[in-house]
TrEMBL record, chain A:
GO terms for cellular component: delta DNA polymerase complex. Residues 183-431 are annotated as: Disordered. GO terms for molecular function: DNA-directed DNA polymerase activity. Residues 282-293, 323-332 have a biased composition (Acidic residues). This is DNA polymerase delta subunit 3. Residues 233-245, 298-322 have a biased composition (Basic and acidic residues).
From TrEMBL, chain B:
It is an enzyme of class 2 (transferase). One of its GO terms (molecular function) is DNA binding. It is found in: Nucleus. Belongs to the DNA polymerase delta/II small subunit family. Its EC number is 2.7.7.7. InterPro entries: DNA_pol_a/d/e_bsu, DNA_pol_D_N, DNA_pol_delta/II_ssu, PolD2_C. This is DNA-directed DNA polymerase. Keywords: DNA replication, DNA-directed DNA polymerase, Nucleotidyltransferase, Nucleus, Transferase. Residues 48-187 form the DNA polymerase delta subunit OB-fold domain.
Length: 431, 532
C-alpha cells in the first residue's frame, strides 16, 4: 500500500506534472478519501524533506470565520439563537419601526481552498478551525485555483464505469439508503463503456438495501428493458441501414425526392447515435412522452414509415390537384427520369441575331450579335448611316427582356406531348 | 510543518484506521402540485387576465373583510360610525365607511403595452427599469382601489407610509372627499392564513425529521471553467468529502433545494444573441438541419449542471426549481426544467406520468417555480425571486433609516416577503408587470395555507427573519386548531432570502426542528498569487 501510493504520486505529480486531488487519488487507488488525504500529506512531507519546493499543495480549511466588525445592535428583542423576531406586526413597513430586525448572528461555516503559501494568512482569518486537509498536490504553484476543477472533470472521463452507488462507501461518500434510480436509462457514458456498463447495471438494482421503506416502483421496471439493453449498440447501426434501403425502394418512383430523403436520413441517424435518445424527447411534452421510447434507438424507425406514408399521401394529393387543374394526364415521373429544366428556353430569334451563350456556375453569360446603327463620313464627305451587326457581351442580369416572355409562356403553350417536366417538382421549381 | 499544529486527522501519515460508512438521514418529501399547469393541448393562452383579479378578490375579500370587521366594528369619528360598503361604487361622499377591493397602482414608469408596439422603431432598447416610480414626480403615482364594479382613487397621507402594490387585496377605511377621492384613514390586509401543523400531509410522523434542509440558488453555471471552484467545493461538501471525520453536518442534510437560475444569465443571453446573428446567416443557406446547430447553441452550461447534479444525486435528493435564466417557460408559474436536458441525472427522475395517476416524486425532482411542498413535514413555499424583484419596483424603501445601502436592500426584501404573506398573495403583481399564465378557474398565487419556511432565491444577500401572525384567537375556519396548544396555532414563518451562489458562494442550511439557520460559505482564498 505504502509503496503503491508513493509510486502513483511520484509518477503523476513529479514525472507527468499533473495535479492530483484527494478525490482523484481515492478513485485511482480505490481507497477512502480520508486515507487519500493522509497519503497526500505524507507524500508532500516526504518529498519536500528530500527536496524543498518540489511539490506544492493546496489545503481546504473548514471552520468559523472571524466576523467582520459589527457596528450596531439596535437594541431589539434578540433571541438567544440570534434570530430577531419580527413582532406580530400589524402591517407592513415604515410605520412600524419595531419591525426592523437587528443584525443577526447566523452561525457561519466557511470552507476555503488555500494555496500552501497562503495557509497561515488564511488560518488567521478563522476564529475556529474545525479541520484542515490537503486538497491537491501539484508540482508548481497554481496560478489559478479553478484549474483544480478540471481534475474532477477528467475523473468522470477516466473512470466512467465506477457507479457511485456501488463505490460510494469505498470513497467515503455519504451514503443514502433511499436512493431511487431507474434502471432503464443508463447515465450517458462514453460509447466504449456502454457494453460492460450495462451488464453491471443489472446488478446495481439489487444492491439497494432490502429494508428500503418506499418500494420504488421504478426499480420494478420489467427486466426486459434492461436485458434488451446490450443489443442496443449493435442494433443502433443496423436498423438505420435497412431503413435507407427501404427508402430507396419506396422512393424509386419519385426520383427527384429521393435525393433529399437520402441526405436527410443520415442526418437523423447521426444525431441519434451521437446522443442516444437525447435529442428527440426535448420536443415532447412531459405527459405525452413515453420514457420507454428512450430506451430504444429505433424511434426513427418508427417515425419514418409514418413519415413516408404521409409524404406519399401528400404527393398523391398534389398530383390529384394538378390533374384537376390542368385537365391533362401527368405522365408518371418514374418513366422519364427528370432532367434539369433547361435554364432558358431558346427564344424565337430574329434571324439576324446570333448568340453565343454559356452557362457558368448558374450565371449565364456570353456574346450576342446586335444590329447597331453607325454613322460615318465617307470619302465624299457625306454622312452615311449603316446598320451593321455588332457583337456585344452580356451576362445574365442584363438578359434581354424579350427572352423572358417566351420562357414564361412556354409550359402552357407547350403541347402535352412534351412530357419532360412530368414530375411535380418541376412544377414548383424556379422558372 | 511545525509539530505544535494539530493534525485534524488528516495532516499525518496514512493510518490503518477503518472508516465507518456514513449514512444520510432519510428525507420525507411531499411536493404539492399547486403551480403545475395543464399539459399539452389543455394549456391555452387565449383567455383574458381579468378573471385572475376576479378570482383573487373573490377568495381574499371574505378574509380581509373579517379582519376589517374586527378592527373597525364600532369605530367612530365624532360620533359617526364607520359603515361597511359592499362595492366601491357605493361609497357616498362624506360618509365614513370602509370597503374592500384590489389595489391598482398607476406608476409613471410602469411598462406600457403600447411600448411593445413602438418597439420596432427603437434605435436601441431602453435599459430595464430598476423601479417604476419616478422620484422627481411623486404626484404621478396614483393608487386606486377596484372591484368588479369600478375604481376609486385613494388619497391621504397614510398611503405614502403604507406600502401597497398592484394586485394586493385590502380594506380601506375613510371618506370620499369633494374631489371624489377616497381619503384613507386606515388599511387592513388579509394577514397570514392558517398554518397547517407540521406533519400534516405525511403519515409517518417524527420517526425521522432530524436534519437540515439545504437551500442554494443562482448557481450561475456558464460552462466556462472560471466559476466552478465554489461549485466543486460544494460538491465535495455535500458528498461528505470535506467534513472532518464522521460526525459532521453534511450527513444531516436531507435534501438540497435549488431555487432557480442554475445557469448563468450570460449563458442564455449569449446563446440568444448568437442565435439572432446566426439567424440571418441561416436564412442564406436555407438548408434544413436536423438536431441543434452547434454554432448557435452552447450546451456546456447545461452539461455542467447535469454532471454536478449527477455527482451529488447518489447521495442527496435534489429539488430543482427553474429561474429567470433557466431553460423553462418565462411566464410564472414556470414549469420544471424538462428532464431531457439532464442526460446523466434523469435516471434519478420519477417515472413519466402514465395516465391519470401522479407518479411518485422523483429522487431528482424538477419542480415548478413558485413551488410548494412538504419537506420533513414542514410546509415550504418559495420562488426563484422574480416576484420580490418586481414588487420592489413598486415600492420606495429608500432613506428610511440610517443603515447601509446593502443592509437596507436586504431588509426591504424581507419586508416584501412578509407583506406577500400578509397579503396572502405570492405574486401580487402578476399579471400586471410579471408575465403569468392566464388562469381561468383558480388563482394559485393566492396563499391558501401559511408555510413554515418561505424562501426567495437569487437575492443579492442572505437575510432571514421570523414573523408571527398576530391573533391566535381569530380562526379562519372550523378547524380543530382551537384545541391545540397555544404556540402551534400562532403561525410562525421563517423567511429566507437565498443569495446567488455564483456571487456569494453561500449555501443556507435550515434545521428542521428548530428552524435555525446556518450559512456555509465556499470560496478560494485570494492569496499572494492573486495579488500579483
Amino acid at each position: 500500500m505504502a509503496v503503491d501510493y508513493s509510486r502513483y504520486l511520484a509518477e503523476n505529480v513529479l514525472n507527468e506534472h499533473r495535479t492530483v486531488t484527494h478525490r482523484s487519488l481515492s478513485r485511482a487507488l480505490k481507497v477512502h478519501t480520508n486515507l487519500a488525504k493522509q497519503m497526500l500529506y505524507e507524500f508532500h512531507r516526504h518529498e519536500n524533506a528530500k527536496k524543498p519546493q518540489s511539490v506544492n499543495a493546496t489545503y481546504v480549511i473548514v471552520g468559523t470565520p472571524k466576523l467582520p466588525e459589527k457596528s450596531e445592535t439596535n437594541g431589539f428583542h434578540v433571541k438567544e439563537d440570534g434570530d430577531a423576531i419580527m413582532q406580530s406586526s400589524p402591517y407592513l413597513s415604515s410605520s412600524m419601526p419595531q419591525q426592523d430586525a437587528a443584525q443577526e448572528q447566523v452561525s457561519t461555516t466557511s470552507i476555503t481552498l488555500v494555496r500552501e503559501e497562503d495557509l497561515e494568512d488564511a488560518k488567521s482569518t478563522f476564529q475556529f478551525i474545525a479541520s484542515i486537509h490537503i486538497y491537491s498536490l501539484q508540482p508548481a504553484v497554481l496560478p489559478d485555483l479553478n484549474v483544480l476543477t478540471d481534475v474532477s472533470r477528467e475523473l468522470a472521463l477516466t473512470f466512467p464505469n465506477d457507479d457511485p452507488l456501488e463505490c460510494g462507501s469505498q470513497w467515503g461518500m455519504i451514503l443514502n439508503k433511499n436512493v431511487k434510480r431507474r434502471t432503464g436509462v443508463r447515465p450517458a457514458a462514453p460509447p466504449a463503456a456502454q457494453l460492460p456498463k450495462t451488464s453491471s447495471s443489472t446488478t446495481t438494482a439489487p444492491v439497494k438495501p432490502p429494508f428500503q421503506k418506499e418500494a420504488a416502483p421504478e426499480t420494478t421496471i420489467p427486466a426486459s428493458k434492461t436485458t434488451s439493453q446490450p443489443s442496443k449498440a449493435t442494433e443502433k447501426t443496423a436498423p438505420v441501414k435497412r431503413e435507407k434501403s427501404n427508402l430507396f425502394t419506396s422512393f424509386a418512383k419519385a426520383k427527384p425526392r429521393e435525393k433529399k430523403e437520402v441526405s436527410a436520413t443520415p442526418a437523423i441517424s447521426n444525431t441519434e447515435s451521437a446522443e442516444p435518445s437525447g435529442g428527440e424527447d426535448v420536443v415532447l411534452d412531459d405527459a405525452s412522452e413515453e420514457e420507454a421510447e428512450q430506451l430504444f434507438p429505433d424511434t426513427d424507425k418508427r417515425a419514418s414509415p409514418t413519415d413516408r406514408e404521409t409524404r406519399k399521401e401528400r404527393e398523391e394529393k398534389l398530383r390529384q390537384m394538378m390533374e384537376d387543374d390542368d385537365d391533362e394526364e401527368m405522365p408518371d415521373a418514374a418513366e422519364t427520369p427528370r432532367e434539369p429544366t433547361p435554364p432558358i428556353e431558346q427564344p424565337p430569334k430574329e434571324p439576324e441575331l446570333k448568340e453565343q451563350a454559356s452557362v457558368q456556375g448558374g450565371r449565364r453569360r456570353g456574346r450576342r450579335q446586335v444590329m447597331k446603327k453607325k454613322t460615318m463620313k465617307d470619302e465624299e464627305g457625306y454622312l452615311v448611316t449603316v446598320e451593321e451587326p455588332v457583337w456585344e457581351s452580356f451576362s445574365e442580369s442584363e438578359a434581354p427582356p424579350p427572352k423572358k416572355k417566351p420562357a414564361v409562356s412556354a409550359p402552357k403553350g407547350k403541347p402535352p406531348a412534351k412530357a419532360g417536366q412530368g414530375s411535380i417538382m418541376s412544377f414548383f421549381s424556379k422558372k | 510543518m511545525s509539530t505544535n499544529d494539530k493534525d485534524y486527522g488528516f495532516l499525518r501519515p496514512p493510518s490503518d484506521e477503518q472508516y465507518e460508512s456514513v449514512y444520510r438521514e432519510p428525507s420525507h418529501y411531499h411536493p404539492l402540485h399547486t403551480f403545475a399547469l395543464p399539459v399539452g393541448s389543455e394549456r391555452h393562452y387565449q383567455q383574458q387576465y381579468g378573471d385572475m383579479y376576479f378570482l383573487r378578490l373573490a377568495k381574499l375579500k371574505p378574509a380581509v373583510e373579517q379582519v376589517a370587521t374586527e378592527a373597525w366594528e364600532g369605530f367612530n369619528i365624532a360620533g359617526e360610525h364607520a359603515r361597511r360598503v359592499d362595492r366601491v361604487l357605493d361609497v357616498r361622499q362624506g360618509d365614513l365607511c370602509w370597503v374592500a377591493g384590489t389595489v391598482y397602482m398607476d406608476l409613471p414608469l410602469k411598462p406600457n403595452i403600447l411600448d411593445d408596439l413602438t418597439k420596432e422603431h427603437f434605435t436601441s432598447a431602453p435599459p430595464p427599469r430598476r423601479t417604476y416610480l419616478d422620484p422627481s414626480k411623486p404626484e404621478l403615482t396614483q393608487v386606486m382601489l377596484e372591484d368588479e364594479s369600478g375604481r376609486l382613487r385613494l388619497t391621504g397621507s397614510l398611503l405614502s407610509s403604507t406600502q401597497l402594490v398592484t394586485g394586493a387585496v385590502v380594506a380601506v377605511l375613510g371618506t370620499e372627499n369633494a374631489n371624489g377621492d377616497f381619503e384613507v384613514v386606515d388599511v387592513k390586509v388579509p394577514d397570514l392564513p392558517s398554518q397547517p401543523r407540521r406533519w400534516n400531509k405525511t403519515e409517518d410522523k417524527k420517526d425521522g425529521g432530524k436534519g437540515k434542509i439545504a437551500f442554494v440558488s443562482g448557481l450561475g453555471i456558464t460552462g466556462t471553467s472560471s466559476d466552478t471552484l465554489a461549485l466543486e467545493l460544494l460538491t465535495d461538501y455535500l458528498l461528505g468529502y470535506t467534513s472532518p471525520s464522521g460526525d459532521e453536518d453534511a450527513s444531516k442534510i436531507t435534501r438540497l433545494i435549488i431555487a432557480g437560475n442554475s445557469l448563468g444569465s450570460g449563458a442564455t443571453l449569449e446563446a440568444a444573441t448568437t442565435a439572432a446573428s446566426a439567424e440571418s446567416a441561416k436564412k442564406k443557406n436555407a438548408s434544413k438541419k436536423y438536431g441543434y446547430d452547434a454554432s448557435t447553441y452552447n450546451s456546456s452550461p447545461i452539461t455542467q449542471l447535469d454532471s454536478f447534479l449527477s455527482e451529488i444525486l447518489p447521495s442527496i435528493p435534489v429539488t430543482l426549481m427553474p429561474g429567470e435564466h433557466d431553460p423553462a417557460n418565462v411566464s410564472l408559474p414556470q414549469q420544471g426544467v424538462h428532464r431531457a436536458m439532464f442526460l446523466k441525472s434523469r435516471a434519478y427522475c420519477s417515472a413519466p406520468p402514465s395516465g391519470d395517476q401522479q407518479p411518485e416524486p422523483g429522487w431528482f425532482d424538477s419542480v415548478t417555480n413558485p413551488w410548494e411542498g412538504e419537506v420533513e413535514g414542514l410546509r415550504m413555499l418559495g420562488t426563484s425571486g422574480q416576484n420580490v424583484d418586481d414588487v420592489l419596483r413598486y415600492l420606495d424603501f429608500a432613506g428610511e433609516d440610517g443603515t447601509s445601502e446593502n443592509n437596507e436592500d436586504a431588509e426591504a426584501r424581507i419586508r416584501v416577503m412578509e407583506a406577500m404573506l400578509r397579503w396572502r398573495c405570492l405574486v401580487p403583481t402578476a399579471p400586471d408587470t410579471i408575465w403569468c399564465y392566464p388562469f381561468q378557474t383558480n388563482d394559485p398565487f393566492v396563499i391558501q395555507s401559511c408555510p413554515h419556511i418561505f424562501f426567495t432565491g437569487n437575492q443579492p444577500q442572505f437575510k432571514t427573519a421570523v414573523i408571527e401572525g398576530d391573533s391566535p384567537l381569530r380562526l379562519d375556519g372550523p378547524d380543530a386548531s382551537m384545541a391545540e396548544a397555544d404556540d402551534s396555532s400562532i403561525p410562525r414563518v421563517r423567511l429566507l432570502t437565498i443569495p446567488k451562489f455564483s456571487e456569494t458562494g453561500e449555501l443556507i442550511l435550515v434545521d428542521t426542528d428548530t428552524l435555525e439557520v446556518e450559512v456555509v460559505r465556499f470560496a478560494g482564498f485570494a492569496g499572494q498569487e492573486e495579488k500579483k
